[in-house]
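User: Sequence in, structure out. Go.
Assistant: Echoing your sequence, followed by the structure tokens.
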Amino acid sequence: MGANRDDTIALVTTTSMNAYLGITAGSTEEGESDLTINAASKFAERYCGRSGFLSTSRTEYYDGDNTDTLYLRAAPISSVTSIHIDDSTPRDWSDTDDLIDSDEYLLYEEQGKVVLDGDVNVWGKRNVRVIYTAGYTTVPADLEQAVKELVAFWYKRNKDKLVAIRSVSVGDKSTSYESEMPAAVAMVLNRYKLWHRFIA
């Protein structure tokens, strides 16, 4: 692990990125690459409408919209500790009467979706609390490779001082630079989009 790499979000290891870019461990370039790994991993999260890719325990609050479906901010869901719907003001999350029994909802793990299976009133502002674990314990190979390619793309662009430059021509040779990410990277990230929400 590099000193600048954030293990809570990074989807590529320092060692793997060093090998991919031909960087020496412990060098200044490694530190810059680590920061780019963090940035590219966070970019992938937001592009895909997720609050994170890596498995971790989460506590989230939602507005009840009077439907039976709740889309969580992370997937895949590993487990749900509790779903609490509180109509009191102020909210009292310690009231066990407002806990939803596990047999009263269905999980769609890969989609990050919870569907209530019963007569439950879900209407209010921040009146739903969900404690759950979600995310990947092992980063899928195609996602890891896409982020690795994005890191390499940003790293080289910054190193060559080509930020915001669309194309460069030298003699009869011309090289084009995309403004944000290569199309091949976008194609992979699109597979991991949680289309029902956008995380700002």
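User: And one key feature?
Assistant: Residues 14-51+138-191 form one domain.
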